[in-house]
């Protein structure tokens, strides 16, 4: 309980400080005392409260909060990024102008003659006005307004582009991955791979239908749905997920849980996905027999399941132990970091999602601190890892620098 309260308090402090900084740069620095500054202060307070209201409200079914709340999160993020970047030239400009003022001052102070007035009193000498831009209120106001306008236009433009990108159709990528153990008769086996569909407050049935139609056009041998299908319960999103029953492939469609399934009622979703015709690989594997040979397709529960009490944690021994080491094995695991354990079992290829490719640049740099591969093909201790960007989004309906994606993975012999 104390840990939860501490986290909530820390989060509230961070949100408050961020909004105070935005108010300072966008309102206080650009306006004088009066009505507009008061309006700006009220707006900053309302937007600060909107952030926790969105996080809590959408989980409680108040989906109408999703669009304004998540859009503000994205806009706020890019406002912060641009304003923080502008702090550097702002500081440089102040230092340069200050040096110019110092250089304009006389090297030595010459004594000025004292003027004696008619009254016999001494009058102070006339002092030439020296332009000091660093202390000029008008110039400070002009620079502050220019920075605020630039930050606002840039953040709005980037966010608008990101919304269009996120809400548009996923990009189809094709990747060929050679596997040393793949039988020649299985050369060219194709796996349609999708992850992070994230059905929820902002994505519904039409999103699923578009993805299913896209995958079916590929005429794939296998379909792999690699976790984070939903952000809500079966009661809320069962209808939105229903088009998954129309997925077509030669040797079946398969699913593994992602971390968001564990926030959404994982037992019910496992049953629902199974009812829709996808085989749920929970720490198990399936032989894929084709006319050209046999391949092991394995799947593990999401690594974050450990300790949740909702389902068994990822068990690599159950999924990969006691198998024929001469066969190639493809592992479905939601998080790329699972490859650290998978490599110990000689996994040839792991298909993952989870990262969203970073979703919003420069978050991809932070994802690298947690995951060994952020997007595309990589390798972990000899195991090849392919990470798809995901077909949906989480939180802000924005994707910048990481397009939504469905991938057709083609396995090839060396």
From TrEMBL:
Signal peptide: none annotated. Keywords: Hydrolase, Membrane, Metal-binding, Transmembrane, Transmembrane helix. The chain crosses the membrane at residues 6-23, 44-64, 70-92, 142-163. Residues 189-357 form the Calcineurin-like phosphoesterase domain. The keyword tRNA-binding does not apply. It comes from the Bacteria. SUPFAM superfamilies: Metallo-dependent phosphatases. PANTHER family: PHOSPHODIESTERASE YAEI, TRANSMEMBRANE PROTEIN WITH METALLOPHOSPHOESTERASE DOMAIN-RELATED. This is Metallophosphoesterase. It comes from Micromonospora rubida. The lineage of its organism: Bacteria, Bacillati, Actinomycetota, Actinomycetes, Micromonosporales.
């Amino acid at each position: 309980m104390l840990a939860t309260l501490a986290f909530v308090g820390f989060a509230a402090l961070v949100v408050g400080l961020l909004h105070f900084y935005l108010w300072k740069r966008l309102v206080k620095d650009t306006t004088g005392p009066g009505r507009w500054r008061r309006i700006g202060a009220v707006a900053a307070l309302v937007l600060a409260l909107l952030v926790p209201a969105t996080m809590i409200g959408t989980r409680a079914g108040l989906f109408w909060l999703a669009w304004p709340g998540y859009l503000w999160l994205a806009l706020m993020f890019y406002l912060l990024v641009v304003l923080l970047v502008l702090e550097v030239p702002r500081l440089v400009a102040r230092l340069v102008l200050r040096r110019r003022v110092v250089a304009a001052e006389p090297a030595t102070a010459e004594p000025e003659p004292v003027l004696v007035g008619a009254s016999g009193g001494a009058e102070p000498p006339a002092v030439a006005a020296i332009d000091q831009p660093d202390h000029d209120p008008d110039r400070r106001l002009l620079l502050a307004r220019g920075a605020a306008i630039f930050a606002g236009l840039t953040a709005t433009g980037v966010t608008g582009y990101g919304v269009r990108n996120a809400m548009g159709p996923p990009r189809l990528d094709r990747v060929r991955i050679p596997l040393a153990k793949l039988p020649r008769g299985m050369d060219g086996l194709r796996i349609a791979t999708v992850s992070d569909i994230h059905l929820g407050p902002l994505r519904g049935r039409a999103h699923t239908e578009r993805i299913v139609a896209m995958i079916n056009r590929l005429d794939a041998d296998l379909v792999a749905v690699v976790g984070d299908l939903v952000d809500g319960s079966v009661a809320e999103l069962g209808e939105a997920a229903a088009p998954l029953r129309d997925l077509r492939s030669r040797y079946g469609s398969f699913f593994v849980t992602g971390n968001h399934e564990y926030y959404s009622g994982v037992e019910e979703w496992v049953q629902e996905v199974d009812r829709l015709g996808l085989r749920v690989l929970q720490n198990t594997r399936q032989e894929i027999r084709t006319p050209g040979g046999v391949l092991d397709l394995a799947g593990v529960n999401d690594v974050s399941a450990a300790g949740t009490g909702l389902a068994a944690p990822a068990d690599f021994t159950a999924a990969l132990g006691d198998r024929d080491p001469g066969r190639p094995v493809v592992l479905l695991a939601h998080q790329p970091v699972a490859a650290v354990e998978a490599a110990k079992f000689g996994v040839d290829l792991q298909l993952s999602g989870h990262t969203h490719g970073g979703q919003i640049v420069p978050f991809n740099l932070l994802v690298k601190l947690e995951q060994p591969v952020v997007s595309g093909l990589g390798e972990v201790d000899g195991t090849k890892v392919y990470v798809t960007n995901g077909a949906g989004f989480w939180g802000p309906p924005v994707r910048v620098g990481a397009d939504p994606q469905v991938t057709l993975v083609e396995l090839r012999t060396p």
